[in-house]
Write a structure and sequence with these properties.
By secondary structure, the chain is α/β, with parallel strands linked by helices. The chain has helices spanning 21-32, 50-58, 72-83, 95-108, 122-130, 137-157, 171-177, 192-207, 232-239, 262-272, 291-299, 325-338, 358-364, 374-387, 403-406, 420-434, 439-452; strands at residues 6-12, 36-42, 62-63, 89-92, 113-118, 162-166, 183-186, 221-226, 250-254, 277-282, 285-286, 305-311, 343-345, 353-357, 391-399, 401-402.
């Protein structure tokens, strides 16, 4: 009985990669094993090189030609169609290609095993230079840029099933930042004996490829609905009940009574939560159905991530209202693809919409209720998290719609006023507690608020229950 050959789709942006001896050896080994059918989809034909094209054809690899597809839109539709046509393995030749096309794989071919090959990286330059370069302004600028690029690269790896590296000294940095991602480390090619060993390793790796269990925790999530600028009933109206958000174990409402502060409401939610995760959400936010799933994925990728936050402020971009389902759906698809893998380290939590895990609450306790505005209480809590070695991640592809920012209206029964006296008092208290360490945070918080607040609304977040 004939054994079905596995289909491999190689997605590549730079055809010159085929001049890399190791990459070419991987392709040659897969084709010669007769266990695989390899097809090659070159994304950018501007990098086409006739010599390399002939080299690929000589390996009996079919090249899928995207030219003359009738424009960008039809070209993307064709890529979606190709990706969804039943490949067992989808192989990206570098991080950059994976960054832009993994979203299509996750949507149109979720059953495919994904592999990312890496031969060069910003890490390598960073680590080699760090031992010998001077502390010049140029070196400082260079290393800062390299480190920023590295931080962009890491989240993408968390979506993949396998990473392939050459034997380089920057690999430990990857493992520290993506601890749950399987990887294989190949030695550099030095002689025919070394090459034969590499071929055996390639065959063993690809024959053993499996979909890995992604770090999305399936355990319970409690939703704490905090009155924030708009009444709790508004949240239920726009979501048509709490069941609109999937994977919620329980929902509890926290309303301001007798002048209770936002910090007190969040603390009450923390005390009442029996689940592993608590999703704290203000009544002014609309939550698209994939947002919670994305935030949970981020939470599970590294043990030091204490809080995961969606993006709510898009600066100059005004999204369509969620009541216009068709336009909002189109916007969300474009937004998610454009911000895929964009995870930003935040200095502080600035608005009541985030997920926090129970072990953090158990270690750090609850918010300091001496602060009367929720934004200052959250800022204080953020400083406590950093002091304990934890991190806050904003997942930009996870978007929430803030009715106070984009609608600019207040529904009777909610609170949406800025209590200047209490805010000023909180700033003095924070400075007294943390000293100069908190001054930078306060300054950036004020700048962000001034830029984001719409005309006619002095404060759209952080005054929950005031």
């Amino acid at each position: 009985m004939a054994v079905r050959k596995k289909k491999i789709l190689l997605l590549a942006s730079h055809l010159r990669k085929w001049d890399d001896d190791y990459f070419a050896l991987i392709m040659k080994t897969l084709v010669s094993s007769r266990d695989y059918i390899v097809e090659f989809l070159p994304i950018h034909t501007m990098f086409a090189d006739k010599r390399i094209i002939e080299k690929i054809k000589s390996m009996r690899i079919r090249i899928i030609d995207l030219r003359n597809q009738g424009g960008d839109a039809k070209g993307i539709n064709r890529i979606e169609e190709i990706i969804g046509s039943g490949y067992d393995i989808i192989f990206f030749e570098n991080y950059y290609t994976a960054k832009y096309y993994l979203p299509y794989v996750l949507e149109y071919s979720p059953q495919s095993v994904t592999v990312v090959y890496n031969d060069k990286s910003h890490y390598l330059a960073y680590l080699k230079l760090s031992g010998s370069a001077s502390s010049s302004a140029f070196y400082s600028m260079l290393t800062t840029g390299i480190e920023s690029a590295r931080n962009l690269e890491i989240p993408i790896y968390n979506y993949t099933d396998m990473l392939i590296f050459k034997d380089e000294d920057w690999l430990p940095a990857v493992l520290d930042e993506a601890p749950f991602v399987p990887f294989v480390r190949f030695p550099l090619l030095r002689g025919r004996k070394n090459e034969r060993e590499a071929e055996r390793k390639i065959k063993a790796v690809f024959s053993g490829l499996r979909k890995r269990k992604k770090p999305v925790k399936k355990k319970g999530v409690s939703l704490a609905l905090i009155e924030n600028g708009l009444p709790v009933s508004h949240f239920y109206d726009i979501h048509r009940g709490s069941s609109r958000i999937p994977n919620i174990k329980e929902t509890r409402e926290y309303r301001s009574v007798n002048g209770g502060t936002g910090a007190e409401l969040i603390n009450e939610a923390m005390k009442n939560c029996s689940s592993e995760y608590l999703f704290i959400i203000g009544s002014n936010y609309y939550i698209p159905k994939e947002t919670l799933k994305k935030l949970m994925f981020c939470m599970g990728t590294h043990p030091d991530i204490a809080v995961s936050v969606p993006i709510a402020d898009l600066s100059s971009v005004v999204p369509p209202h969620y009541s216009n389902r068709e336009n909002f759906s189109i916007f969300m698809k474009k937004h998610s693809a454009a911000n895929f893998g964009e995870w930003e380290d935040l200095k502080y939590i600035s608005f009541p919409c985030f997920i926090i895990c129970n072990r953090i609450r158990e270690r750090l306790g609850i918010l300091d209720e001496r602060f009367k505005t929720v934004e200052t209480a959250l800022l204080d809590y953020s400083l406590r998290m950093f002091q304990a070695g934890y991190r806050i991640k904003m997942m930009k592809e996870a978007f929430v719609y803030d009715d106070l920012i984009f609608s600019g209206s207040v529904i009777p029964g909610g609170s949406n006023h800025h209590v200047c006296g209490k805010a000023d008092r909180d700033k003095y208290l924070l400075l007294e507690k943390w000293g100069k360490k908190s001054a930078v945070f306060l300054e950036s918080l004020d700048e962000k608020k001034a830029a984001a607040s719409p005309q006619g609304i002095e404060d759209h977040g952080g005054t929950a229950g005031e």
